[in-house]
Design goal:
globular, mainly alpha, Four Helix Bundle (Hemerythrin (Met), subunit A), about 250 residues, 12 helices, single chain
Length: about 250
């Protein structure tokens, strides 16, 4: 089922609510799924599970998971930045669906929805800081909501752009990237600085994991996530409009 126009308009805040619920896991007050104590987050629980088999020490397990989180956070940030550079920030953040032409440059030559894919990959890193039930809730609900958004956008673009977009969809996969470009580049020029500023939250989270993660302090990293969310909201409010065609 595709997302409604209201869901698309409020997509940023709906995703924020999904994250907040994942971190807070309010249902655990009644269901008691995640246990108690300072190390009930996924990072600690997975590290303990990996160390129990004797394959690695608990420290090595924490480090391996941290490295995986840094890779996921960085890959998600890069994929979204790459996509934003070609889509344009104005189109990406618009409250209504837009589609003036088929975007077939940068990551859009390999996958139709690099922004949603990058967001989900980045969330794999954030999930390490959540309680287990919250991480499962966030990852599943995020996939479901993003699929609704994708279906809504695709229906809109098929109706507005017609055969060129249908032909593009037949060549380029929706979410699993191709290893080689599936369409010829249209020659659009990327705007990297604006894209990087638009994804400042993701780059800030990546830097926080890379620099502060070695303290093994999940609450400190969570505080960094909140700080970067605030920074990104300020940057979003101050960002000048870009009215170029998408």
């Amino acid at each position: 089922m595709k997302a409604s126009a209201l869901e698309f308009r409020l997509r940023f805040w709906i995703i924020v609510v999904i994250y907040v619920l994942g971190f807070v896991a309010p249902w655990d007050l009644w269901l008691h799924l995640d246990g108690t104590g300072p190390n009930t987050h996924v990072w600690a629980r997975l590290a303990v599970m990996l160390s129990r088999g004797g394959i690695m020490s608990i420290t090595a397990a924490f480090n391996a998971l941290l490295i995986a989180a840094i890779v996921c956070a960085g890959l998600g940030a890069w994929l979204r930045t790459w996509g934003s550079a070609y889509l344009t920030v104005d189109v990406m953040s618009d409250a209504s669906m837009r589609g003036d032409c088929v975007v077939a440059d940068g990551p859009y030559r390999y996958v139709r929805n690099p922004l949603y894919l990058g967001n989900w990959i980045h969330t794999l890193a954030l999930a390490l800081l959540m309680p287990a039930s919250g991480a499962i809730f966030t990852l599943l609900l995020l996939v479901g909501f993003q699929m609704r958004l994708i279906l809504g956008e695709e229906a809109f673009l098929r109706e507005k752009l017609g055969e060129p977009y249908v032909a593009y969809c037949e060549k380029v996969p929706r979410l699993l990237p191709s290893l080689r470009p599936r369409v010829a580049a249209s020659g659009a020029r990327p705007h990297w600085m604006r894209a990087a500023l638009a994804e400042i939250f993701m780059w800030g989270v990546t830097a926080s994991f890379a620099v502060l993660g070695w303290r093994y302090h999940a609450n400190l990293l969570l505080q960094c996530v909140l700080v970067w969310l605030g920074v990104s909201l300020i940057a979003k409010a101050a960002r000048p409009k870009d009215h170029r065609a998408g």
